[in-house]
Design goal:
The protein has two domains: 137 residues, Rossmann fold (3-Layer(aba) Sandwich), CATH 3.40.50; 140 residues, 3-Layer(aba) Sandwich (Rossmann fold). The N and C termini lie far apart (65 Å). The strands form two sheets. The chain has a six-stranded parallel sheet with strand order 2-1-3-4-5-11, with helices on both faces. By secondary structure, the protein is of the alpha/beta class. The protein is elongated. Strand 3, helix 4 and strand 4 form a beta-alpha-beta unit.
Length: 339
């Protein structure tokens, strides 16, 4: 019996030591598994974020580190429950860090706090969070971006006229700030511009934005087929695309001054035709890139800035062929995603 007991103790000790050895091996290899969670996965903007994250992953691995970026998010940008489940899944899997674009600035507070309480730091990208439970916030200054959209629309209108704004969806901090920036700059600097409507939402998809655009434009039609307004502003890619479709389908594209936000192939084509007078552009590839790089720096014990502004510019039909603008209008995400 003593011999049998000794054998059992020896085997148990060997198993424990083997487990410790595995953990030490994993730690010594320095593997950093970083989850990148977008608001959605269909729009060009999010594909560009993904490309930037992959670019950072490859660059870090080329420098001798071992980094694995895991990309996963909800399909639609209003699926809060899906994004919460994705965060919870990565907490369970024990990733090293999470880079998150919260689709709701309030609903994502508890999942982020849960991650941090489990020893998983979070870097926020694109859209703000009503919390301080994050290592860094890497994003466009969306309020300033909205003001730039308002200034461009005011410029093409000559500082007077009637305009409408189609909002994105409730709870999206990034577009909410853009919307407020647009309204504020008109109120402060252009008293002769009247905002006829600013309380309608396009929703999270291009299809819902198209339907909302048609409904918004319908009562503004004149008997001769024109519009009783002079300008339109949309605060993100899906609302800009939905509005463009509605204008094209009704033969109004180019007959009203339209300023949008973000870029896609169809929006760039419309800009070239002067159907869109301006697009406020972010740098989503750089945003994804800096999100991952900032997370890695934090994980390695380095100080990181609490707020990193990735900037914004306004593309117009006149400047869209300039190299800097062209790179932002047509981001080369396919290079990094092998599409």
């Amino acid at each position: 019996m003593r011999r049998l007991f000794a054998i059992v103790v020896f085997v148990a000790a060997a198993v424990v030591l083997a487990g410790i050895g595995c953990k030490r091996k994993e730690k010594s290899e320095g593997t950093y598994r970083i989850a990148v969670i977008p608001k959605g996965t269909t729009h060009v903007f999010w594909k560009s974020i993904h490309a930037g994250a992959v670019k950072a992953e490859q660059e870090l691995n080329d420098s001798g580190l071992d980094v694995e970026v895991i990309w996963k998010g909800p399909l639609k940008e209003d699926d809060r429950e899906s994004q919460i489940r994705v965060v919870e899944d990565f907490i369970t899997r024990g990733v090293a860090g999470i880079v998150l674009a919260p689709l709701d600035d309030a609903a994502m507070r508890l999942p982020v706090r849960d991650a941090v309480n489990n020893g998983i730091p979070v870097v926020i990208i694109d859209s703000g969070l009503n919390s301080e439970d994050y290592a860094s916030f890497v994003a466009t200054d969306n309020y300033i971006g909205g003001r730039k959209g308002g200034l461009r629309l005011a410029e093409v209108l000559g500082g007077k006229g009637k305009v409408i704004m189609l909002r994105c969806h409730e709870g999206a901090a990034s577009s909410t700030k853009r919307e407020q920036g647009f309204l504020d700059v008109l109120k402060e600097q252009y008293p002769q511009i009247e905002v006829v409507s600013s309380n309608q939402y396009g929703g999270a998809t291009t299809e819902s934005a198209y339907i909302a655009s048609e409904n918004l434009l319908a009562p503004l039609r004149r008997p001769d087929g024109g519009l009783t307004i002079d300008g339109i502003f949309c605060p993100n890619e899906s609302t800009s695309f939905g509005m463009l479709r509605a204008l094209e389908d009704s033969g109004l594209a180019g007959k009203v001054s339209f300023v949008g936000f973000d870029s896609s192939e169809r929006l760039v084509q419309a800009l070239a035709k002067h159907h869109i007078k301006g697009l406020v552009l972010q740098d989503p590839i750089n945003m994804g890139y800096l999100g991952v790089k900032t997370m890695l720096a934090h994980l390695r014990g380095r100080d990181v800035e609490k707020r990193i502004d990735t900037g914004s510019v306004v593309a117009t039909p006149e400047n869209m062929d300039e190299p800097t603008m062209k790179n932002l209008l047509e981001p080369d995400f396919k290079k990094w995603l092998n599409e």
